[in-house]
Amino acid sequence: MTVGPMTRIVVVGGGLAGMSAALTAADGGADVTLLESRPRLGGATSSFRRGDLWVDNGQHVFMRCCTSYQQFLARIGSGNDVDLQARLDIPVLMANGRRARIRRSRLPAPLHLALTLATYAAVPARERPGVALAALRLARVDVTKAATDEETFGSWLARHGQSPRAVEALWSLITVATLNISPDEASLALA
């Protein structure tokens, strides 16, 4: 963005998009005012303390592949305020009180999730091979095609034989945590 030295820009909303827009405008030389109704920036992305517990809200799960988000955090001085696991390891508390785990092994992709997919208790054993096959097919999706961005992840999962239970127990868990939307709303390219 190129603006003149006297250009004044007002950005309404101090969420991730608003902060990013304000920084881009300021980098272009504009005099920027950022308006936010809350007493803090971040929009849906925030943490708050409840007793001895810190509660994360919004973009609280991101992966190493989210490099733009990591660069943004570094830019606003928050890069050191987040933790990245050495390896993906997500404990899952199921509705029946049982526990499961989504864990990345040391094997190279696409085999890195093979053990998790073979043993993931939240998905019935008879559906696990189909989940693994869908994961392999997902790795081959061409994200550069416009049609990939137009299709929802949910419709792609349905076309690839994923049951509503598998979508809820695995795919939705990851999609909501990383994209903040359900598979039926997420573009296949983003997923």
Beta-strand residue fraction: 15-25%
DSSP helix fraction = 25-40%
Q: Biggest sheet, in brief?
A: 2 strands, parallel
Read across the widest sheet, the strand sequence of neighbours is: 1-2
Output the structural class.
alpha+beta
Question: Average pLDDT value?
Answer: 87
Defining key terms:
alpha+beta; two-stranded parallel sheet; 6 strands
Question: Would you mind describing this structure in some detail?
Answer:
The longest helix is centred in the C-terminal third of the chain and has 16 residues, at 164-179. The model has no long low-confidence stretch (mean pLDDT 87). The two termini are 29 Å apart. This protein is of the alpha+beta class and 191 residues long. The chain contains 7 helices and 6 strands.
At a glance:
The chain has 191 residues and is an alpha+beta fold. 35% of the residues lie in helices and 16% in strands. The protein is built from seven helices and six strands.
Please give the structural blueprint:
Elements lengths: L7 E5 L3 H12 L3 E5 L10 E5 L2 E5 L9 H9 L13 E5 L5 E5 L10 H6 L8 H12 L6 H5 L2 H7 L4 H16 L12
Parallel strand pairs: 1-2
Antiparallel strand pairs: 3-4, 5-6
